[in-house]
Amino acid sequence: MAPSALQQNGHSGEQDLDLTSSAVEHRLAENEPSNGTTTGAASNGVSQPNVHELDASKLTYTFTENPREIPALGVTEIDGNTICTDHMITAKWSAKNGWAAPELKPFGPLSLMPTASVLHYATECFEGLKAYRGYDGKLRVFRPERNCERMLQSSVRISLPSFAPKELEKLIIALLSVDGPKWLPRDRPGNFVYIRPTMIGTQSALGVQAPAEAMLYIIVSFMKVMDKPAGGMKLHTSPDDMVRAWVGGFGYAKVGANYGPSLLATQEARARGFHQILWLYGKNGECTEAGASNFFVVWKTREGKKQLVTAPLDDRLILAGVTRSSVLALAKERLADEVEVVERKYTIDEVMEASAEGRLIESFASGTAFFVCPVSLIHHRGRDIQIPAGKSGEGAPITLHIKNWLVDIKYGREDHPWGLVVPEEH
Amino acid sequence: MAPSALQQNGHSGEQDLDLTSSAVEHRLAENEPSNGTTTGAASNGVSQPNVHELDASKLTYTFTENPREIPALGVTEIDGNTICTDHMITAKWSAKNGWAAPELKPFGPLSLMPTASVLHYATECFEGLKAYRGYDGKLRVFRPERNCERMLQSSVRISLPSFAPKELEKLIIALLSVDGPKWLPRDRPGNFVYIRPTMIGTQSALGVQAPAEAMLYIIVSFMKVMDKPAGGMKLHTSPDDMVRAWVGGFGYAKVGANYGPSLLATQEARARGFHQILWLYGKNGECTEAGASNFFVVWKTREGKKQLVTAPLDDRLILAGVTRSSVLALAKERLADEVEVVERKYTIDEVMEASAEGRLIESFASGTAFFVCPVSLIHHRGRDIQIPAGKSGEGAPITLHIKNWLVDIKYGREDHPWGLVVPEEH
């Protein structure tokens, strides 16, 4: 074959480099207000007149005829099954017609064909947020617009449909308005329920392709309080043979594919007496996430400056946590005199050095499920790094300051724009 | 804090390195005959007397009362939905009781709670194999034991239960015995159906944890013939912003998490006129897989030696394809005088150089879905690499030799141990 077998194609090589991110940007642009309209026509990026948008105002209501009793305080599951509230919201999507009217209906099983895309190709993503019964009697959700925006990012990344995040937020509020008063009653202040918006590819087709049918659903469940493990959270660093996420991957998206593959290492770490994996990245062992939570350390630099340090978002390895963002904002606003807030890459060796030199002050994991959870120990390659975590692991001072400020906002002790009050029907 | 904060733990750091692979080996060992018995007690690795194994001899039969018509030749879907046969097999598993008796029953929807593990955490894996109606009238499956062994590897990797692969094989044969005669009739020799064993985590619990309940199911479907795209298969190399699999990941396992995240780049490549992505790995751009198939090139070395080259399995980046293994074995056995068979890492630059120097002779993708599919073009960073692929892209000589040998084995023109004959009831 002659050298001419290698031909310069019509376009430059530049646009070959970012196939995925340009596809993501293209799809996200469909939801920009500048388009004049949002669109459900996710698969081809072209707004079509007969393709319907996700529209919360079209929500239909079918109330349960078999209301269940709410569980006793602290009970979150029955025989290992998560307890959910009476209702859920579902909304079906197809590439051809866009979004059907969302339906509020009794919580119950989904019917999926055995060929459904989600069961084979992990075309699925989700969000997690909590609703809090305040000490003032009001029901609040915490910065839900953040979760709804991230849900769109995740959905597009995993080839599921796009939608206007505000519509998802309205649906979440609508479901809480119906189930909140009963399941998170006013006589149980200081408690929460966990909301799980989920999107799955439902097309009944075995080919490896973006599903042409999907379903969004929202459920409300009970969840254990996990922010106070006795003695603090104990982490085991990730093994060499398990990488959670990687540059060029999808670590920033809340897609199922980030979770299932990590369960095995987590299970093994638990069998060895640890709570979660501290995920390291790259040959230098950069600290990224703790379990499925963001991870923070507080240390003193060698110059004696106190810093709150967490991994940056720019290489998209880690989830842009809503709690993470809130922790950083509060620390900058309220601890500016005491602590410098730093988002940068840092390695497990730096953490070990700080510990060995007596400069490691605190550590915690942050996320919706684990809230702000003190870390008391990191096990790395045969060594244990002990970290001060207060009495019985309840948290050292900076951790507790941040945690208490967030508690006050969530439960209405502090009036704050992050706490969105849910209107309740009765 | 004193340096003593860094404590040597009871065990050495060595065992921290291979948390995942040691957990996998541990779980796989449960199914070794040396244990005396296989076990369904996957989650703790201890064989328990009351935990039942997967046992094909317990299969129950419930036949459909609404048999459907078989599709016309070449029809594989209706309105984008894959056509399946009349029946499926399901088997439920729980950590507590192990495997329930498998059931053959009418093909139909599955009922899953919205909280089911598979819908959130991608706790899912699958296999794909075909059954062929031979020109001698017999029904054959191709090396099914390979798929069943790989299914076990995948299941364990994604924290789903273990089982004896032979039992899965028996269930596949049992389903084909029932649906084969009708859906792949003797008057349609030279055709195939596609079998999809699938395992999903069904526990209705939202925590990020290995599911304590799961379901195995087997369905039989129709699938397009994909091994003869007009003009040959055209590949677009993977962008910098999308890595399919990575060392320390799970590229070798047939888990959903390998597929969903790749759909976006594939969709974008298709929009640009290509069939599949050629997945490159690492900063040197090693060629790994083409779409979800293995990838081969035939080139001449600068010394003039003809080689059939494909990526190695040892770093577990790629799927150990059954077709791949068969291609390599046939080439070694039947083309030894003509072609050297080489499993090694090779880069897109080497392929471009071979092309530019007139040494690139052939290329093909191999897999169950795409069989042996000639590749006629690779687009990389603005350049097109043209590859001889025979008249109309039907395949160059070596590709066609291998393909025809495999066709002969699958459709019974050659009696060969790889073609397992399925007993048929009528």
Précis, in short:
The first copy, chain A, has helices at residues 19-29, 117-121, 144-157, 165-183, 263-271, 322-334, 348-356, 397-410, and strands at residues 6-8, 60-61, 77-78, 81-82, 87-94, 98-99, 103-106, 110-112, 124-126, 129-133, 139-142, 192-201, 213-221, 233-237, 276-281, 286-290, 293-300, 306-310, 340-343, 360-367, 371-380, 383-386, 419-421.
Walk me through this protein's architecture.
Chains A, B: It catalyses: L-valine + 2-oxoglutarate = 3-methyl-2-oxobutanoate + L-glutamate; L-isoleucine + 2-oxoglutarate = (S)-3-methyl-2-oxopentanoate + L-glutamate; L-leucine + 2-oxoglutarate = 4-methyl-2-oxopentanoate + L-glutamate. Chains A, B: GO terms for molecular function: L-isoleucine-2-oxoglutarate transaminase activity; L-leucine-2-oxoglutarate transaminase activity; L-valine-2-oxoglutarate transaminase activity. Chains A, B: Keywords: Amino-acid biosynthesis, Aminotransferase, Branched-chain amino acid biosynthesis, Pyridoxal phosphate, Transferase. Chains A, B: It comes from Xylaria flabelliformis. Chains A, B: Pfam families: Aminotran_4. The structure is a homodimer of 426-residue chains. Chain A is α+β, with helices and mostly antiparallel strands. The first copy, chain A, folds into two domains: 56-221, D-amino Acid Aminotransferase, Chain A, domain 1 (2-Layer Sandwich), CATH 3.30.470.10; 233-395, Alpha-Beta Barrel (D-amino Acid Aminotransferase, Chain A, domain 2). Chain A contains eight helices and 23 strands. In chain A, the strands form three sheets. In chain A, strands 2, 5, 6, 7, 9, 10, 11, 12, 13 and 23 form a ten-stranded mixed sheet that branches. A six-stranded mixed barrel of chain A has the order 14-15-16-17-20-21, surrounded by four helices. A two-stranded antiparallel sheet of chain A has the order 3-4. In chain A, helix 1 (19-29) packs across helix 3 (144-157). The first copy, chain A, is globular, with a radius of gyration of 23 Å. The N and C termini of chain A lie far apart (79 Å). The model of chain A is unreliable at 34-46 (pLDDT under 50). At the A-B interface, strand 1, helix 1, strand 4, strand 8 and helix 2 of A face strand 1, helix 1, strand 4, strand 8 and helix 2 of B. Strand 22 (383-386) of chain A pairs antiparallel with strand 1 of chain B.
